[in-house]
Amino acid sequence: MSSTLQATWLRDDDRRPPDNFILEVVQRGLAARPKRLPSWLFYDERGSELFVAICEQPEYYLTRCEIALMRAHGAEIAAALGPDVRLVEYGSGHAIKTDLLLEHLVSPVAYVPVEISPEPLRQSVQRLGERFPDVAMQPLCADFTRALRLPIAPRATRRTVIYFPGSTIGNFEAADAAVLLRKMRAEMGESGGILIGVDLKKDTALLEAAYNDAAGVTAEFTLNMLAHVNRAIGSDFDLRRFRHRARYNPMAGRIETCILSSEDQVVRVGRQQVRFRENEAMQVEYSCKYSLEDFAALAHRAGLAVREVWLDPERMFSVQYLVRA
Ligand code: AVJ
Questions:
Q1: pTM value?
Q2: What local confidence, expressed as pLDDT, does residue 4 receive?
């Protein structure tokens, strides 16, 4: 995984990343050429809220398609997973799709959401705990790219299924995605599985619209990364002097989101003064798009096989069930 930028504090408790850790990550990212910041910095409390608002934008088809797909095929998906599952969700956020799975699973043992942002984690466990009182809620406030110490399950588990919806796998470059899938393969064990949402390649205009909504919510989400960093480490990024840009790179098959400096400027970050040139781009997110063949090949590299694929009627998005090859 992009080793210099991943989170390295140890947590299986309810604390957020320490601010000195964020300072270190930001300083390292700003020293890189081109400058880059890791996309997990989007997700402070405000960022998690803005992400929910993105999902409600008409252009952002991903969430709508995935929810439609879970509604149409939830029972079949649950049947593929089988009874007595321990469900571990990576990057669970507000866990808005999890209901659609839990309501069909037969006697699920435990739900283990793994989320970096403590407030959505608390709220989702509260909500799901009330709705599914027989399922043990075992939240982990952690970075899912790190080795996880999964809590002991409250009773015998038939299989551990890692649920990774939302096409968050798309935020990782191919090599990093394969490393992450390998880590999941180890964590789920012999009999485990991975239920993963994967966004599909499609017309460039549709892709670019999804990351440039007319209401400007995505732009606000992107710039909130700077506000988050300011709050965490007391830097002085002036949000009015930066703007959002998201473009599809057809060669790489991904949306590339940057923060552009609107002018020549100097930003104070800790004790350092960091210069930005006019129109300088700082890379903040990749959202990789796959064909079914591309993704099967990626799974294969990670020692996994695609057992089943579900698609929405327009074939915009996929949910795939992976097992050990
Ligand atoms: C939830 C990470 C998959 O890349 O589509 C949405 C985040 N960024 N709009 C994505 C996001 C800009 C989203 N993921």
A1: 0.92
A2: 31
Query: Which of 287, 289, 316, 317 to mutate to test ligand 1, by most ligand atoms within 8 A of the CB atom?
Result: 287
CA of 292 to the centre of ligand 1 (A): 19
Number of neighbours of residue 205 by Cβ within 10 angstroms:
9
Ligand 1: residue whose CA is nearest its atom 3 = 168
**pLDDT given for residue 17 in this prediction:** 67
Residues forming a β-bridge with 265: 276
Q: For ligand 1, is residue 66 a contact (CB within 6 Å)?
A: no
Nearest Cα residue to 81 out of 157, 179, 168, 166: 157
pLDDT in tens, 147-187: 999 999 999 999 999 999 999 999 999 999 999 999 999 99
Whether the per-residue pLDDT at 12 is higher than 80: the answer is no
For residue 56, report the distance from its CA to the centre of ligand 1, in Å. Answer: 13
Does 138 sit in the ligand 1 pocket, CB within 6 Å?
Answer: no
Cβ atoms of 325 and 304 closer than 8 Å? yes
d(CA 313, CA 47): 31
Lowest mean pLDDT across 139-153, 154-168, 239-253: 139-153
Ligand 1 contact via 113 beta carbon (within 6 Å): no
Sheet containing strand 281-288, edge to edge, reads 242-249, 254-261, 281-288
Cβ–ligand 1 distance for 193 under 6 Å, the answer: no
Question: Is any atom of ligand 1 closer than 6 Å to the C-beta of 54?
Answer: yes
CA of 156 to the centre of ligand 1 (A): 35
Give exposure, 72-98, as e/b (b: 16+ Cβ within 10 Å).
Answer: ebbeebbebbeebbbbbbbbbbbbbbb
